[in-house]
Amino acid sequence: MVVVKDAEDLRFIFGNHAGDELTGYPRSETLGKTDFDLFPQDQAEAFVAFDREVLASGELRAIPEESISTRYRGTRTLRTLKMPVLDEAGRPRYLLAMSEDITEHKQAEADLQASEAQLRQALKMEAIGGLTGGLAHDFNNLLSVIIGNLDLLRERLTGDAESNDLAGQALSA
Known about the structure:
Layout: E1 2-6, E2 12-15, H1 17-23, H2 27-30, H3 35-38, H4 41-57, E3 61-69, E4 75-86, E5 92-101, H5 103-157, H6 161-172
Antiparallel strand pairs: 1-2, 1-5, 3-4, 4-5
């Protein structure tokens, strides 16, 4: 989106087709208007304050992320560059703004971060499962030895001679 505002009163004097599509406001409705005519009060105040800073500095300024309320597409996130256009005497005559809609990019980043968090959680659970499975296997092996020795001891105590010989050999091993 490309827009040009008059430096004195920050009224829109030019906007391109991409701006019409992004904001939902055709140029016929924006030209001659200010941010306060088109956007919520808090957004308009932020836009105007930044515009005034750019005009006062006389330099190109970037806004890595800013939110803008649109007519039909809800709130969008923009990456914006603003710069003053100077007259022959070096005074700001216009404010030029170029914005790129990065809403989908930001959503894709958020989705990726959520997926990475889910993957990390799944890997943790897999590691815990492997650890507990190994512990259960080792514990089962110990219980098998204990149960086997108890069976041999029981047979020995019940007086079965053949069992007693086996139990004695198992217990001495």
